[in-house]
């Protein structure tokens, strides 16, 4: 029996369910435990001090894990403190090997082995299946490819196995609900998961309020942004960016519509579909419109957006699109390895804007809170954003130095990051408004979404005005004022 623990707030937990389905298809039993909705910003200073779950909750998790051959936890960097705590509690009470997998352990395998017994580095489907088979048959598993293993005080670093080339061979996510459990935060009880209970925990899409299903049409990324972790270097020489067939994608969505009939929207969380040639996009859109017919969301890179591609997606049901801008500063573009001109960015924004009457929302992602940026870099970004056609909405992300990224390594060398165990980025919510740096431009950027006239924002970013107003005490006051009005607006909306 393999027990998989999901820590993400998103209970669709795509990767965890895929792993479960893959292992089950190979003849093994699995158990899924979902522990959603953890507010990691409230943790104390060190990850080891975090107590995200009460004693009653942990006792239930421990009881459910009894009898397992292997316990697996898939995690992002933001899940690290929770994973540390849960792993520690399981180790105190059970003598069962614990494996970590996902982006963070793949980026920091040695550090992860301070807590876990085994770390899966890279794609996990075949590696996990082989490992589980060896454990359950009593074989030596120390030579399992993709696995880093603690053994007698040393670390065994096994080589990588080849990447999965044909994504159509991977089964659809596990939604059989057999041995699926979920934590109710309000009651501290872990209960059997059912489709009805799952509906309650499905996170609605923020703009439309529609119940969404998150999925992937591809794996890998063709870009090399320095702030983003990928397996590209790990699988150098292999076909890293891979797509599922249109037929396979449609079959999954038809399966989901039957399993979860309450789903109202499909969100494709990979960024690659706009990179496809127009013939493939036409094929996908025609099939989707005919067989699925639900509203959908796609994200992408400004290099790939064209009117022709957008027209097909709009006709098929696209209602929300997100495009990664990140910065308008030439200097920061080099830092991020975002080789895209302002002209290309604006051309993409203008193409999207032509379909504004058919779209519920157009989002542009922007990264702020970058310690490498100067006031002029921030101002350069704002000047670019002011050229975007309306309606527009900028999603502001705080820069997070994620382990395994080129920018993380640079920040360590430059002395920007502290000791590993004290690094608050492991708990940083890069989307949180309240977690942002209290500087002058953290006040200015939100004004872009408040219909403040362009001329006023231009005045506020004038270098002489910035020189006069960019003061620590004044920044704190401005931020508090913005927080007050933001919370007041929230209360008014709730009363309605």
Summarize the structure.
The protein is α/β, with parallel strands linked by helices.
Describe this structure in words.
The chain has 2 domains: 2-169, Cobalamin-binding domain (Rossmann fold); 205-495, tm_1862 like domain (pyruvate-formate lyase- activating enzyme, Alpha-Beta Horseshoe). Helix 13 (375-385) links the parallel strand 16 and strand 17 (393-398). The longest helix has 24 residues, at 472-495. The radius of gyration is 23 Å and the shape is globular. Helix 2 packs across helix 3 (80-93), helix 8 (246-259) runs parallel beside helix 9 and helix 9 (278-291) packs parallel to helix 10. The protein has helices spanning 14-25, 55-65, 80-93, 103-107, 109-112, 125-136, 195-201, 246-259, 278-291, 307-316, 330-336, 342-353, 375-385, 406-413, 440-447, 454-460, 463-469, 472-495; strands spanning 2-6, 30-34, 70-74, 98-101, 118-120, 147-151, 154-157, 180-184, 189-192, 212-215, 218-219, 242-243, 265-268, 296-300, 318-326, 361-368, 393-398. It has 496 residues and is of the alpha/beta class. The chain is 38% helix and 16% strand. It contains 18 helices and 17 strands. The strands form 3 sheets. A 9-stranded mixed β-sheet has the order 7-6-5-4-3-1-2-8-9, with helices on both faces. A 6-stranded parallel β-sheet has the order 10-13-14-15-16-17. The protein has a two-stranded antiparallel ribbon with strand order 11-12.
């Amino acid at each position: 029996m393999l027990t998989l623990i999901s820590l993400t707030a998103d209970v669709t937990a795509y990767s965890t369910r895929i792993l479960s389905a893959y292992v089950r298809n190979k003849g093994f039993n699995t158990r899924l435990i979902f522990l959603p909705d953890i507010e990691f910003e409230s943790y104390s200073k060190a990850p080891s001090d975090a107590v995200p779950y009460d004693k009653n909750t942990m006792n239930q998790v421990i009881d459910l894990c009894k009898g397992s051959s292997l316990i697996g936890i898939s995690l992002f960097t933001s899940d690290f403190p929770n994973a540390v705590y849960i792993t520690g509690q399981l180790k105190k009470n059970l003598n069962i090997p614990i494996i970590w997998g996902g982006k963070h352990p793949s980026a920091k395998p040695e550090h992860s082995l301070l807590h876990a017994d085994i770390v899966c580095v890279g794609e996990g489907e075949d590696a996990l299946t082989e490992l589980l088979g060896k454990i359950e048959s009593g074989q030596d598993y120390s030579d399992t490819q993709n696995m880093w293993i603690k053994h007698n005080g040393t670390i065994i670093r096994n080589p990588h196995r080849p990447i999965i080339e044909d994504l159509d061979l991977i089964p659809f996510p596990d939604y059989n609900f057999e041995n699926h459990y979920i934590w109710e935060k309000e009651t501290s009880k872990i209960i059997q998961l059912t489709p009805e209970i799952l509906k309650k925990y499905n996170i609605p899409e923020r703009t439309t309020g529609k119940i969404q299903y998150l999925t992937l049409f591809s794996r890998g990324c063709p870009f090399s942004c320095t702030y983003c972790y990928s397996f590209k270097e790990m699988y150098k020489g292999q076909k890293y960016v891979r797509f599922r067939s249109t037929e396979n994608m449609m079959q999954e969505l038809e399966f989901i519509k039957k399993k979860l009939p309450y789903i109202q929207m499909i969100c494709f969380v990979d960024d690659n579909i706009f990179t496809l040639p127009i013939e493939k996009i036409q094929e996908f859109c025609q099939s989707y419109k005919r067989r699925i017919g639900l509203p959908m969301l796609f994200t992408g890179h400004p290099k790939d957006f064209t009117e022709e591609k957008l027209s097909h997606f709009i006709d098929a049901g696209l209602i929300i699109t997100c495009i990664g801008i990140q910065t308008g500063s030439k200097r920061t573009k080099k830092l991020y390895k975002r080789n895209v001109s302002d002209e290309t960015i604006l051309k993409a924004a203008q193409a999207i804007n032509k379909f504004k009457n058919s779209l519920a929302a157009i989002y542009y992602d922007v990264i702020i809170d970058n310690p490498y940026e100067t006031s002029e870099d921030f101002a350069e970004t704002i000047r670019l954003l002011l050229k975007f056609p309306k309606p527009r909405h900028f999603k502001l992300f705080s820069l997070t130095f994620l382990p395994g990224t080129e920018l993380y390594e640079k920040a360590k060398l430059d002395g920007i990051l502290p000791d590993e165990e004290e690094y608050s980025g492991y708990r940083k919510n890069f989307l949180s408004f309240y977690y942002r740096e209290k500087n002058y431009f953290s006040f200015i950027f939100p004004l872009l979404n408040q219909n403040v006239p362009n001329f006023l924002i231009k005045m506020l970013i004038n270098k002489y005005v910035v020189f006069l107003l960019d003061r620590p005490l004044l920044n704190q006051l401005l931020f508090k004022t913005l927080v007050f009005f933001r919370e007041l607006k929230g209360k008014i909306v709730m009363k309605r």
